[in-house]
Amino acid sequence: MTTLIVNAQVVNENQVQYLDVLIENGHIKKIEKDLQNVQADRVIDAKGLFLMPGVIDDQVHFREPGLTHKANIYTESKAAVAGGVTSFMEMPNTVPNTLTQQLLEDKYQIGANTSLSNYSFFMGASNDNYDEVMRTDPTQVCGIKIFMGSSTGNMLVDAPEVLEKLFANAPCIIATHCEDEPTVKARMAIFKEKYGDDVPYDIHALIRNEEACLKSSTFASSLAHKHGTRLHILHISTGDEVPLFEVGTRSNGKILLANGQPKLVTAEACVHHLWFDAEDYRRLGNDIKCNPAIKAPHHKEKILQAVLDNRIDVIATDHAPHTMEEKAQHYWQAPSGLPLVQHTLNVMLEMSRAGKISIDRVAEKMSHAVADLFDIKGRGYIREGCWADLILVDLNATTQVEKSNLYSKCGWSPFEGTEFHSRITHTFVSGHLVYENGQFDETVKGKRLNFSR
């Protein structure tokens, strides 16, 4: 089927302009100012709408296999495409942990059978699976994930000799969760003794504090520079970490330093660290308990400024669902993580509406830069020849977040009750119109991401 999108305001590569886009065989065939005389099987008049490249989320936890009472690849990819996320990269702390090439391929098979969006999966590292990690195919796998701080699934890698070997010999980019485990454990013991079960509202930010993040991120960065390793530090939650990262630019599909050299250490900000702060624990409690923690208000301003300054390169979610029953437990028992993938673009468009970031920078940080950073083939841009991963957005409509319109299996959102001043109306995944105004066409599944490495 050929699809012609006309009268759209196309947001792409630092510009917003009226263009028509022809989709053929899953790819973008033509982009011109007037294609209205071109014959197509389907014509979408996008007057009043913005056409953006599909969001590429480089950090999600879709919980399959082993934790499917919380979520699975089908349900979470459905929430993703409803929110304009056309590709995702999923983390290895499932059950069993993704620590062998066979377990990794098992997840790819699940993705091929059930995912409505394009997909890739990180290979997990542990203290004792070095040989398996070294077998990772960099053209077929998004990266290697190292937990340099324990989180859900407890895949902590803390053996110094293992970290040295991984950083020295990694076959592709390493992505890290950075929190210093001894610092976190020491502070947890202090606060348990001090407060018992009568904990202060912001205790999570006090336990998983700035020191824990900075110490671990600094260590990871030092390993990368020592060994010349491409390192991507996930979910920056403090302004204290910002000076670790150099100002970057994008050029010819690469993330570069100002002097034109490749940027060795890149960073990610997540929407919840830009939207919430520690004062929101009073209202939301465990619903925004996540690792690393949401912290004091001044941190989100510093993180946003680092995004705008190109010290932080991409924006993602760290979508990590748990059931409402799990989250309703006492603080010490409640798991960390929150479901975000359905509203990640709404959050950033709301910030754009408030004048905090332009809509073209949103596209850059959520699509272009992610494709460049991970060397993704043929995605992340609205260009002739690229895969047609596209979304149409109405900035004159609203999205009211309610339990009744959530697609994540866990059935709740920290944004419940929020009205966003944007609505994703159409989502194309590899040229297939999978989502249109609340309706899904699930006849075609997403594709495996490939990488130019």
Automatic annotation (TrEMBL):
An annotated GO BP: purine nucleobase catabolic process
Amidohydrolase-related domain residues: 50-434
CDD domains recorded: DHOase_IIb (cd01318)
GO cellular component: cytoplasm
Protein origin, superkingdom: Bacteria
Cofactor dependence: Zn(2+)
InterPro entries hit by this protein: Amidohydro-rel (IPR006680), DHOase/Allantoinase_Hydrolase (IPR050138), Dihydroorotase_CS (IPR002195), Metal-dep_hydrolase_composite (IPR011059), Metal_Hydrolase (IPR032466)
PROSITE patterns: DIHYDROOROTASE_2
Keyword Metal-binding applies: yes
Keywords attached to this entry: Hydrolase, Metal-binding
One family name in Pfam for this protein: Amidohydro_1
Annotated family: Belongs to the metallo-dependent hydrolases superfamily. DHOase family. Class I DHOase subfamily.
PANTHER family named among the record's database cross-references: ALLANTOINASE (PTHR43668:SF4)
Function comment: Catalyzes the reversible cyclization of carbamoyl aspartate to dihydroorotate.
Name of this chain's protein: Dihydroorotase
Originating organism: Dyadobacter soli
